[in-house]
Design brief:
Chains B, C: This is CoA transferase subunit A. The complex is a heterotetramer, with 2 copies of chain A (about 220 residues) and 2 copies of chain B (about 230 residues). In chain A, about 15% of the residues lie in helices and about 25% in strands. With about 220 residues, chain A is α/β, with parallel strands linked by helices. Chain B has a domain of about 150 residues: Glutaconate Coenzyme A-transferase (3-Layer(aba) Sandwich). Classes of the chains: A alpha/beta (about 220), B alpha/beta (about 230).
């Protein structure tokens, strides 16, 4: 189902991110917003979804009453197989990530720098549960994109010149999907690519902690 | 024709061979594959000063959490303990030492231990604080981290099916770290939901060869802890 | 619900993607697990200047030997070529460069390639001539050899059963190097004795996840080469 | 079947070596003479036989007419499973060897030194097919024993002060079974433990290329 028409900017961001997935890709969707991307893919879309705890070919999430106690994704949701799914151990699961077989990962973020650095696992003194599989996903997926609100709860920008929090990986983020815009990481820093409906480039720049290059001509909306 | 020895043991006797101060690998990623019954018996017998190696710290009130709450765990090597507020509090208060690894590197360090490799070289985490204090070497002009192998005094494994020689098979995402840990300890203890006679597990269906397993403990009950978590 | 793509291909088209000068991993230990049909097609298409990585050189008149006899192989990385007098002669006459590895280290170097690890550290062969020219590092006071990962442009794999996504299962000792090589190449081509529809291979029975496999080629015939060798 | 009474000294050597295997061991028998050791174990003897190409629990060798084309041992013999056998890949097969799960290996030899060094894979210029799995077996099995004729075809000793051929492993051989004697490697060098029937300690010393310590008192025979 496509939700490009929904008035909820987060849903539109997630729907837009779903269009980043090309047929035949192997994709890992991080916990939180990224997981919702799958709901925006057309039925029967050919993509292999990977989860770190040892599965390729994730099928629909199941309610507790229908769940298999032995079948979860890395976020703890009860999932199901599809025809052609495979289970494997944790070493094989990350062999897939590190050896270049993961085409795309979509991750959440605390901060993203204009250099493509990502911080998404630790806020010293407040939040330090460990990085899980995030470091390898962020460092080794062929394409790393981030889904995040453009600012934090206090309105502070999450897209920055430099990250202030402990890094997950350096220079690997290629693109950021937010509730306001689609922003690419380029050799010159952040570049605005698309705007959420009703948002202006100026509003995006004001919510961004580093310079934002604007495209020539009209800016597409999502 | 030769035969293969029977390694079945009671859970009590198997766990009794684990001493105070032991380093113990514990299978499981969240609930699936966690050897809850072996952990219960470890709690009951009272071994303390333990170093545990597990992907996570389970959730509060489950599995590893019982041992942490009872003060039996000196150190935990893990990748993510975000679902266990007790463990995070114990870490923050200095009651529990926690060493974090990148998840796939934890898997590889355990696998290296099981494969008799002293260490692996990787670029994972090179630009992060997880690289702090680790030896670096340059190979073909590339800086790499030395990640040393992990081995344990004991590994606690949860299998779906097993035969009496200790050949193991897992199910779905309950596999996770179990086959890796089942190769990387001096004393490998596996609990199994189903115990099969020799020959009951076809040789191509074996996921952990019995050669690596020391004790095989059939479960008489699948307790609530193994069930679906209703959040 | 998503679906998984179909990777079936003809043997001709699959092998046509392998260029001259390629480094190619070839599964098999002796006869079992050797992809004889893929090798035949490689011989027919004429790719040359190849570097082959295989446990052994098969026996004279079989598998790899055809390529060596036709002068297509520049270099062979192997553990033991004792059953192939042609290969030994070609090596002794300087027509074939051979790099020998300890068998388990060849397996680990390939596995490291498939696991995205640049190298492993080992003490295997430290006191032997196989250590000559290899980088040494000291870890925790122990001298170790750096064994670098192997990756290939293509891997030729023999599976017993496979589905259309490329999930593979092997049988008996035809498994050997196949699952390792099936993770360690840019282009992984698997021939299979039986092709199953999606869902025909239960997710727990998959030995090589289809994620690693690029082309799946059903065999229409099991030629004599696959048979029992009568010596 | 026990062949301690056979007049063939090689068969007696192999039968004696079989008594080195304790119940419950995991054992790898090298190609050639060592493979024959299994024929001298009592029926049903509890031992797990390993072969490098990926099997634990080797059953009887089969003639071509009954063979499974996919089931061989590392020497190429067609073998069969027993109840409880397992197949695995080449990485797992050597993980077993290197991680200390292989209790015993019995290997052939070109030369064995009084220090426990072994040379069994290469004769420069004459025989260099590669070491296969021999280096890891010789270096990592918990106990390494050698089965060999005491001298080569020309009558030259194979038990030497130092090996002259390229080494397989250093200082790992614990015991040598020959057609003449059982000899241990001790910190002091070779030590005679047992004699083949009809052989004297002096004959063994004359066939050995380094000093041989004799036990006090009677020397057992096999």
């Amino acid at each position: 189902m496509s939700d490009d028409k929904t008035p909820d900017p987060r849903r539109r961001m997630v729907a837009r991110a779903a269009r980043e997935i090309a047929p035949g890709m192997v994709v890992n969707l991080g916990i939180g917003l990224p997981t919702q991307v799958v709901d925006h893919l057309p039925a029967g879309f050919p993509v292999c979804l990977h989860t770190e705890n040892g599965m390729a070919g994730i099928g629909p999430t199941l309610p507790a009453a229908e769940a298999d106690r032995n079948l979860i994704d890395a976020g703890g949701a009860y999932v199901s197989p599809i025809p052609g799914s495979a289970y494997f151990d944790s070493a094989v699961s990350f062999a897939l990530v590190r050896s270049g077989r993961l085409d795309l990962t979509m991750l959440g973020a605390f901060e993203v720098a204009e250099t493509g650095d990502l911080a998404n696992w630790k806020i010293p003194g407040r939040f330090s549960p460990g990085a899980g599989g995030a470091i390898e996903l962020a460092q080794k997926a062929r394409r790393v994109v981030v889904l995040t609100t453009h600012t934090d709860r206090k309105g502070n920008p999450k897209l920055l010149a430099r990250c202030t929090l402990p890094l997950t990986a350096t220079a690997h983020v290629a693109r950021i999907f937010t509730d306001l815009a689609v922003v690419d990481i380029t050799p010159g820093g952040f570049a605005l690519r698309e705007l959420a409906r009703g948002i202006t480039a100026r509003e995006v720049q004001e919510a961004t902690g580093a310079p934002l290059a604007l495209p020539a001509g009209d800016i597409p909306t999502f | 024709m030769t035969s293969l020895p029977d390694k079945t043991a009671s859970i009590e006797a198997a766990i009794a061979a684990v001493p105070d101060g032991a380093t113990i690998m514990v299978g499981g990623f969240g609930v699936p594959g966690t050897p809850f019954t072996l952990l219960r018996e470890l709690l009951r017998q009272g071994q303390t000063g333990l170093t545990l190696i597990k992907n996570d710290a389970n959730e509060t009130g489950m599995g590893l959490d019982h041992l942490i709450a009872a003060g039996r765990v000196r150190k935990l090597i893990a990748t993510h303990i975000g679902l266990n507020a007790h463990a995070i509090a114990a870490m923050n208060e200095g009651r529990l030492e926690v060493e974090f690894c990148a998840q796939g590197i934890l898997a590889e360090r355990i696998r290296a231990g099981g494969a008799g490799l002293p260490a692996i070289l990787t670029d994972i985490g090179l630009d992060t604080e997880l690289a702090a204090g680790k030896q670096r070497v340059e190979v073909e002009g590339r800086p790499l981290l030395v990640e040393t192998a992990l081995r344990a005094d004991a590994a606690l494994i949860h299998a779906d099916r097993a035969d009496r020689f200790g050949n193991l098979a897992y199910v779905a995402t309950a596999r996770n770290f179990n086959p890796l840990m089942a190769m990387a300890a001096r004393l490998v203890i596996a609990e199994t939901e189903t115990l099969l006679p020799l020959g009951g597990l076809p040789p191509d269906a074996v996921e952990t060869p019995g050669v690596f397993v020391d004790r095989i403990c059939p479960l008489t009950e699948i307790s609530e802890e193994y069930g679906v978590v209703r959040r």
